[in-house]
From TrEMBL:
Belongs to the DegT/DnrJ/EryC1 family. The lineage of its organism: Bacteria, Pseudomonadati, Bacteroidota, Flavobacteriia, Flavobacteriales. Keywords: Aminotransferase, Pyridoxal phosphate, Transferase. It comes from Salinimicrobium oceani. The keyword Transferase applies. This is DegT/DnrJ/EryC1/StrS family aminotransferase. Pfam families: DegT_DnrJ_EryC1. The keyword Transferase applies. GO terms for molecular function: transaminase activity.
Length: 361
């Protein structure tokens, strides 16, 4: 069976080595030695000043919204994983959708200003599939209107844009280290901010608001990463070069073998050093997508409809129809992409897709 993605498993001996440190320290959570070490290693790997590790990639979005959006209207993308929108609603803010760019699939910066009202407090945009939003334009709009910028960087691990770590943009960026993500800690995530004062607030917010054992800076929640999660991260991080190399090769095979007269692929924004995190293809209509999916499933190959449905159609939001996002969501499929997927399998996937598309109706 070929799934859309497969978690990377480091050698078990490496994990034993890390867990032995935990047993020796007799320390399981509350910012132990391994969490701090992983934070340092990630700061270095990602070229960021400061990272706070969290227990997943959703809580950092919620914390950023709690601190920065404060119940206001949040301008956001309809084309992302559901967590981007559900976090807004969960934090009692109102999502205001702005449609996406048809090629880059990120929020269309040219439509943001018309969505701003006096209740707007923040912009929450996703670097979907690791493709950067137009961060410069978004920064200018935010400055002009006094808005905060939060990036859902769940797919942005290791991406550099104009020579800078993509996770360093915005007032806050978040990341996810879920098992299915490029770099993972089983479950996990991170919150990143360059602003010292804001970083302090985000930090105490992720640990119940604590200022020492008996005093509190303010309200907080528990979003701490545990030592067991950090142990996995410390084992996976040294393999990143190998993981990226393998994925790059697979992306090359897809690029060289798929028939792009029948389909289109994601266009990466110029100036981007991309991370090969996903391989989305866009079909000409939903019927041919369904036929292709069926043909692949028959061969035990299971791509996924990422991201479907368009988030402006969720039953707990109100929105004008986001027509570009709805069209893309209907027609997009993410192809299998993971460490050491067999080249022959990838070629077989391309053949099935090409054949189905060429012969459909
Ligand atoms: C995975 C993902 C999240 C959520 O991260 P978790 O670690 O699973 O909580 C949020 N946003 C996007 C775009 C994601 O893909």
């Amino acid at each position: 069976m070929i799934p859309v993605t497969k978690a990377f498993f480091p050698p078990i001996d490496n994990y034993h080595h890390q867990t032995r440190r935990i047993w020796k320290n007799q320390w399981l959570t509350n910012r132990g030695e391994l969490v701090k070490e992983l934070e340092k290693n990630l700061e270095q790997y990602l070229d960021l000043e400061s990272i706070v590790l969290t227990t997943n990639g959703t809580l950092p979005i919620q914390i950023a919204l709690k601190v920065l959006a404060q119940g206001g209207e949040v301008i956001t993308t309809p084309f992302s994983y559901v967590a981007t929108t559900s976090a807004i609603v969960w934090e009692n803010c109102k999502p205001v959708f702005v449609d996406i760019h048809p090629k880059y699939l990120t929020i269309d910066e040219n439509r943001i200003e018309e969505a701003i009202t006096e209740k707007t407090t923040a912009i929450l945009a996703t670097h979907v599939f690791g493709n950067p939003c137009n961060v410069e334009a978004i920064e200018r709009i935010a400055q002009k209107h006094g808005l905060k910028v939060i990036y859902d960087g769940a797919h942005a691990f290791g991406v550099f844009y104009n020579g800078k770590s993509l996770l360093g943009y915005g007032d806050v960026s978040t990341c996810s280290f879920h098992a299915t993500k490029l770099f993972h800690t089983g479950e996990g995530g991170a919150i990143i901010s360059k602003n010292k004062e804001l970083a302090h607030k985000l930090f105490y917010s992720h640990n119940f608001g604590h200022n020492g054992p008996t005093d509190f800076y303010g309200v907080g929640i528990n979003a701490k990463m545990s030592e067991l999660q950090a142990a996995m991260g410390l084992c996976v991080l040294p393999f990143m070069e190998k993981i990226l190399e393998s994925r790059k090769k697979t992306v090359g095979v897809y690029n060289n073998n798929l028939d792009f007269n029948q389909l289109s692929k994601l266009e990466i924004r110029p100036g981007t050093k991309w991370n090969f995190s996903y391989y989305p293809i866009i079909f000409r209509n939903e019927e041919v997508l369904e036929a292709t999916l069926e043909a692949l499933n028959l061969k035990d190959i299971f791509p996924r409809r990422y991201f479907f449905p368009s988030l402006d159609t969720l039953n707990y939001v109100e929105s004008d129809p986001m027509s570009v996002s709805r069209e893309i969501a209907k027609n997009v499929l993410c192809l299998p992409l993971f460490y050491n997927i067999e080249e022959n399998k990838v070629k077989e996937i391309c053949e099935i897709i090409n054949y189905t598309n060429l012969n459909f109706k």
